[in-house]
């Protein structure tokens, strides 16, 4: 069964990792897909090619989500290409691991701007378009297990993920009257570019794996199903929710 037949889905950070898996997952479920990305031109083009090979329409637009105009431009180009916006998957994010006491101001500010401001502007631009269309929609934001727990080298990052989770709760209230649903997914540790260097340390990797009851770290595709579900009409009465997708890592106290 295809869950997103005839829908138009926008994904930020779609060149690689979780965003790419979400974009291709949406296409497998019948959606036309627009991806935003920041620097990986070849990966973005190969994502578009993979979506087109599934028989769906797709395009990639390069832009920095930290800037409000990237969001308005992305939504406008999607409307020009596909005629409408049904789903926004706000996923783009960075996590430059760094100690707290000597955190450079630029690293702190850039992380806030990409992860938090980026999510805000993208979700707002998509919501404005959905309200104008008048037939509802769905927003899925990629938060994190880190919205709920801390990280020694993530003091700049975890508050942005809590912020994204909170943004979905408030947006669910603001947009419910327009039948626009807003939910977040909270991935655990998923093997992507964002943590390649951090998990190159075998001891760190073993210790993270050891915390997962399902016995393995996640793959980007592990997020595709939950994101497609929350984007789809199967989740028609789900809004303001947060779905942990972490192999059980969060509940594993002892
Ligand atoms: N991997 C994990 O363990 C977890 C990840 N997450 C969250 O998932 C999301 C995706 O991360 P993940 O797939 O792991 O990471 P990746 O590094 O694999 O992918 C990040 C994506 O975001 C894009 N991006 C980065 N900065 C910008 C920017 N300024 N403007 C537009 N796009 C940008 C990248 O584009 P490009 O590469 O083209 O520059 C890329 O497409 C993030 O929000 C992250 O916080 C949450 C929990 C766990
Ligand atoms: C980048 C990290 O490996 C990853 O990011 C998150 O949000 C998770 O909590 C992991 O720490």
What does this structure look like?
The structure is a single chain. By secondary structure, the protein is of the alpha/beta class. It has a single domain (8-252), classed as 3-Layer(aba) Sandwich (Rossmann fold). The chain contains seven helices and seven strands, in the order βαβαβαβαβαβααβ. The protein has helices at residues 17-28, 41-53, 68-82, 105-133, 158-175, 202-210, 221-231, and strands spanning 8-11, 32-37, 58-62, 87-90, 137-142, 180-187, 242-245. α1 (17-28) runs parallel beside α2 (41-53), α3 (68-82) runs parallel beside α4 and α4 (105-133) packs parallel to α5 (158-175). It is globular and about 50 Å long. The site of ligand LFPNKLMZ has 10 residues, from loops.
Structural domains: how many: 1
**Main sheet record:** 7 strands, parallel
Strand content: 5-15%
Q: Give the tally of β-strands.
A: 7
Low-confidence stretches: none
Radius of gyration: 17 Å
* Widest beta sheet: strand line-up: 3-2-1-4-5-6-7
CATH topology assignment: Rossmann fold
Distance between the termini: 39 Å
CATH class: Alpha Beta
Secondary-structure blueprint:
Layout: E1 8-11, H1 17-28, E2 32-37, H2 41-53, E3 58-62, H3 68-82, E4 87-90, H4 105-133, E5 137-142, H5 158-175, E6 180-187, H6 202-210, H7 221-231, E7 242-245
Parallel strand pairs: 1-2, 1-4, 2-3, 4-5, 5-6, 6-7
Helix pairs in contact: 1-2, 1-7, 3-4, 4-5
This protein binds NADPH dihydro-nicotinamide-adenine-dinucleotide phosphate and the ligand C[C@H](O)[C@@H]1OC(=O)[C@H](O)[C@@H]1O.
